[in-house]
Amino acid sequence: MFRRGFALKVVVVVLTAVMLSSWARAAADGRSAKYVFLFIGDGMAGAQVAAAEYYLGSKAGGAPSIGRLCFTRFETVGLCSTHSADAWITDSAAAATALACGVKTKNRALGIDAQGGKPQNLCEAARALGMKTGLVTTVTLNNATPAGFYARAASRADGYAIALQMADSGVDFFGGGGVVDARGKDGNQPCAIEKMRQAGYQIAVSREDAAALKPGVKAYLKTEDGVMPYDMDRSDAQMSLAEITAKGVALLDNPKGFFLMVEGGRIDEACHANDAAAAIKDVLALDLAVAVAKKFLDAHPGETLIVVTGDHETGGLALCGASVVASAQRLDAQKGSVSAFLPKVNDLKAANASFDEMLPAARGFFGFDTLTPAETEELQAAWESSLAGRRQGGTAHRAAYGSGQPLLVTCARMASRRAGLSWTTLNHSAAPVPVYATGAGGEMFGGCYDNTDICHKLKAAMGANARGFPSARE
Length: 474
Fold this sequence. Notes:
Layout: H1 2-29, E1 35-41, H2 46-60, E2 76-81, H3 92-101, H4 122-128, E3 132-137, H5 144-147, H6 159-164, E4 173-176, H7 192-198, E5 201-204, H8 207-212, E6 218-222, H9 241-252, E7 258-264, H10 266-272, H11 276-299, E8 304-310, E9 313-314, E10 318-319, H12 328-331, H13 342-350, H14 355-366, H15 373-388, H16 390-401, H17 406-418, E11 421-422, E12 428-429, E13 433-439, E14 447-450, H18 451-462
Parallel strand pairs: 1-7, 1-8, 2-14, 3-4, 3-7, 4-6, 5-6
Antiparallel strand pairs: 2-13, 8-13, 9-12, 10-11
Helix pairs in contact: 2-11, 3-18, 9-11, 10-11, 15-17
């Protein structure tokens, strides 16, 4: 008993010494993390993370189990609230502003506080410390989340004005999707991407172009004209989020460090469509990008911080299957994302196809090998609404399908139910989101707090508090 107690005291003393030494080093130079990664799963909360892990466990077969993601193995886990300045349920612009700037703002506002003030964002804070900065996303680069880290706008809808700010942002690396309204909504304005080229950015559009990019250059790796494909729809010829992240790391790595934000933006779009298969597989794609950062951390221990979180929850996802949850067999029977089925639906509508003519296509794409009478009736009602259009459907149509395409919404929900998952909305919810952290300063991210605190904690880890910003340690 004495030996056990003595051994425990030794362990406590050693761990305390290690922690104090770490804090002493941080105090000496004003920072604990030289390399900082922030991963954001747009629309990703605890249910989406759990569904991905149950999916992996289901693929392994046997007794009920989960397959751990890279980031759920991190030592520190926290939980944060996501409300905006004017709503319990945030949109992505207000959430991005909270994460990037550390302030609450109204829904749809970007990079400004609720009074119109212009707080410093994380990229600016990092750059003031001599760090390089990068932003990667699977959606367009002037979409709400990435734009929150470089732009300021009264409305996220002003895509062209936001895109124009990319060239002057000082961000060293942009990667992922394209730019919406790059020439303005009328298509006649000066091109925002050409402005980036004139500002010294090298524009790369392929793996070959990416390979030619060398450290020291400012670059925009634009893999698509619009959003990147859902990972389940991505061909081998198209770059993955993990590949783009790795290229960003290679370009940004330097003795003064870097800040890199990586967004799995289409998780949100899949959840808006109630498409469980696409959402889960994009969570897994984000996790592979996190693994790139973890490999970098392993090579740079003691000076690298990785934080993974969501900006809000989308879809009100529930894990409540009667017998199976996130069944890999049933989810994998779906041949692509719900949006990949849209062209076929449009063709069938154009041909004014009957329900019996449409049904084989839906069953084949979603893997509906058999249908109950209730499911058949549900699909038939959705197809009739699809043919009639929203105007004829009115209030009942909106209640059943929101602003979505009726057949796609119905097929997505049915595929989810068969896999032990269900949805309560086609929109965002007020559910809190988890935060996972590891590395230098990672211990600051445990506990419950507001999403604005993530920004302040990251600044503290980088040492930005030494220049007048709040310290998360105080």
